[in-house]
Write a structure and sequence with these properties.
By secondary structure, the chain is of the alpha/beta class. The chain has 11 helices and 10 strands. A hairpin with a 7-residue loop joins strand 8 and strand 9.
Length: 283
């Protein structure tokens, strides 16, 4: 659908706290585009005013992505250039802008990244944990069933894991992590690049004790140590497969057999069920 007169979508990273952490290229881009698409127009307006940039700002957030996205797409197709920004950091990373990028990609709209700050990468660098390999998990699901399933999948994750969390959910998340993963090392960063920037390097149990006394404030990035006991976990899964197979031979359904075996052996029900399905395909 793209033509020679089609505009461009610029993905512009903005500061995660300190307004000085913006590139000259980002400022040039925000100055030159026709309009800016922002998650929270109030936050973006403050940033633009700080640098003396006057541009029309359109709202693009979680609950208006479809309506606003169609309007933004139409303007770009008709030749206007748009800068997509999020409240802090890189747009489209655990952010509603992901949907706009997908729409523009489907329509072959030219897109250009203007790189800059990213809270997840900054927190990993500060963590003191293994940064050679890490997985970004964003925000955990709110739904209890999906949340439990997600956490169980992370039990056998060897890589360092990165989560975002809001202050009012932090304590519950730390407890869920401890219950599911065991007492791992964790680095907790908040208010990065701001006046009250802080990074705590603790175990999960120590973190829970800390925030029981100190109320969480600010947005948090959690960097969690990967699984270091993989051989033992694999042994438990193998034991679980053996036991579940015996139960199915005695007449239990695969699902009931897996549930009982996981409880008896002490391994992830989801991981065990997945391996049982793979085994039945191979046989």
């Amino acid at each position: 659908m793209s033509t020679s007169s089609t505009g461009t979508l610029y993905l512009v990273a903005t500061p995660i706290g300190n307004l000085s952490d913006i590139s000259a290229r980002a400022i040039d881009t925000l100055t030159s585009v026709d309009f800016v698409a922002a998650e929270d127009t109030r936050i973006t307006r403050k940033l633009l005013e700080h640098y003396g940039i006057k541009k029309p700002i359109v709202s693009y957030y979680q609950h208006n992505t479809r309506v606003s996205g169609d309007k933004i797409l139409s303007r770009i197709i008709n030749g206007e250039n748009c800068a997509l920004v999020t409240d802090a950091g890189t747009p489209a990373i655990s952010d509603p802008g992901e949907e706009l990028v997908r729409i523009c990609a489907d329509e072959n709209i030219p897109m250009v990244i203007i790189p800059g700050p990213c809270a997840a990468v900054s927190a990993v660098a500060l963590s003191g944990l293994d940064s050679s390999r890490f997985t970004f998990e964003g925000y955990l699901p709110v739904d209890k069933k999906k949340r439990k399933s997600h956490l169980e999948e992370l039990q056998i994750e060897k890589r360092t894991m990165v989560l975002y969390e809001a202050p009012h959910k932090l304590n519950r998340t730390l407890i869920d992590l401890l219950d599911t993963l065991g007492d791992r090392r964790i680095s907790i960063s908040r208010e990065m690049t701001k006046i009250y920037e802080e990074t705590l390097r603790l175990t999960l149990s120590e973190a829970i004790a800390h925030f029981d006394i100190t109320p969480p404030r600010g947005e948090f990035v959690l960097v969690i140590e990967g699984d270091k006991s993989q051989p033992d976990f694999e042994n438990k899964l193998n034991e679980g497969i053996k036991y579940a197979t015996e139960l199915t031979e005695k007449g239990l359904t695969k699902r009931d057999a897996v549930k009982r075996a996981a409880e008896e052996v002490g391994c992830s029900r989801n991981s065990l069920y997945k391996l049982m399905v793979e085994k039945s395909k191979d046989s």
